[in-house]
Every structure is written in C-alpha cells, then in structure tokens.
Amino acid sequence: METILEMFAYPFMVRAFLVGSLVALCSALLGVTLVLKRYSMIGDGLSHVGFGALAIATALNVAPLTVALPIVVIAAILLLRLSGNSKIKGDAAIALISTSALAIGIMVISMTTGMNTDVYNYMFGSILAMSKEDVRLSILLSISVLILYFFFYNKIFSVTFDETFALATGVKANLYNTLIAVLTAVTIVLGMRMMGALLISSLIIFPALTSMRVFKTFRGVILNSAIISVFCLIAGITVSYVYATPAGASVVVINMVVLGIYTIVGIIKNRVHS
C-alpha cells in the first residue's frame, strides 16, 4: 500500500496508469477481433510505421502524435487494401510496409539527431515519455475508440466470424474492416510512447490468446481480455517502478506469466469436462 501511495505521488506515474489502462483496454478489445481474423501481426507492422513517423516528427521538431497518427492511419488503410489484393497476401503486405517504414525511420534519425535517448524510448517505451498534452489527446482518442467499438459491436462481431455471410446480409464488411484497421492504428500510436515500437503488439496479442485458453464465447473472451490487459498493464508498471525495469518489457513479462497460468487452467478445465 505504501508503494502504491508513493507511486501516485508522482504526476508521471498517474499519467502512465491512466493512459496505459485506457490503451490496454482498447488493445484488448481490438485484439480479439484481430487474432480471430488471423490478422494479429497488423499491430507489429503498424508499430514499425509509427516508429518511422515518430522519427520524422523528431527530425522536424514537431509534436510526435500529430505526425504519427495520420501516417499510421493511412498505413492501416493501405495495409487493408494490399492484403485484399490476391497478389500480395496479408503477412507479405505487413512485412513490406513495416520494414520500409523502419528503414526510413532509421535513415532519418541517423541523418539528423542520431541514435539518442528519444530513439531508445520510441523503440522500447518509457513511462516518462508522455507530456500533459499527449495525455489529454490520448484520453480523448482512447475514449473515442471505445465508444466507436461498442457502438459498432454487432457489426464488428459479424465481420469477425463470417465476413461472407455478413456481406450477404447487407453488412458493409469493407467499411467495418477499415474501421477496425483505423481504430487499431490509433491504439498503436497511443500505446507506442509507453510500450515502444517493438513491444506494443503484445498488448493486442497476449490478452486475446490468454482468454481463449479458458473462455470459448466471443463475449467471454472480450470481457476477460479487457480485465487481463488492464491488470497486466498496472502490474507491469508497478514492477517497472519498484525494480527500475523498462515499462514495456515488464508489462510483457507479466502477460507471459498470466498466459502460462491460463494455459494450465485451460488444460485442467478440459480434462475435467472430458
């Protein structure tokens, strides 16, 4: 309890918990859909695009989020279009865009500021990286993502499980796939400052995979993923504060532990029912 009170005495820790929890919640909700559609690596691809955008923003000395957000959203829509093209499959499209963006980012950095502390923070995350302006924008965008997700929940459910049937019943599947991609892009950009470009995709993948070890219904997986994601984020930041470890890596390690526990529970549950 003393440690918790001590953490909340620092404004940057309050910002980290607030924004981190919102981003974790958004990531968990979108992650279930992305994993079920076998498109979970989109987070990894978009995070590399985000790194390239942040590098350009640093070189131009402008606000990182205002540059990264539109670039990553455009990349998400482009990725969706490319993966829909039979000539370029989803995994190839992700590799094509992510490696190109990463290379551009590294080139821009090497020619301007050099590989400094900011670059390290972008790659691996830092709870100190978020300014008050970033926090306000992050809260606004996170709430927007959550509202849009719940407003279009039924449509997202339809295109997740049977896109062909959804099209046959009049659902504009392409529109909702684009919406999923855009919401994912926004979430990736918001989470990159804390988790880093190399680890942000873990927020999308781990909670969904963990929940699927035990729960079998879409709603059950969604709700449990949300709880797991926020818990692991808070536990990870706490570990990071106490042991002075990188925030992003700490969150991922906690997610790994929880995945292991759920896997064991799932095995026991299956044996009992069989």
How would you describe this protein?
- This protein is mainly alpha-helical and 274 residues long.
- The chain is 82% helix and 0% strand.
- It contains 13 helices and no strands.
- The longest helix has 27 residues, at 247-273.
- The chain is globular, with a radius of gyration of 19 Å.
- The N and C termini lie far apart (43 Å).
Distance between the termini: 43 Å
* Low-confidence regions: none
The H/E string reads HHHHHHHHHHHHH
> What structural class do the secondary elements suggest?
mainly alpha
The main sheet comes to: none
**What Rg is obtained from the alpha carbons, in whole angstroms?**
19 Å
Shape: globular
Beta strand %: under 5%
Q: What's the topology here?
A:
Layout: H1 2-7, H2 11-36, H3 42-60, H4 64-84, H5 90-111, H6 117-124, H7 132-151, H8 153-161, H9 163-168, H10 173-195, H11 201-212, H12 218-243, H13 247-273
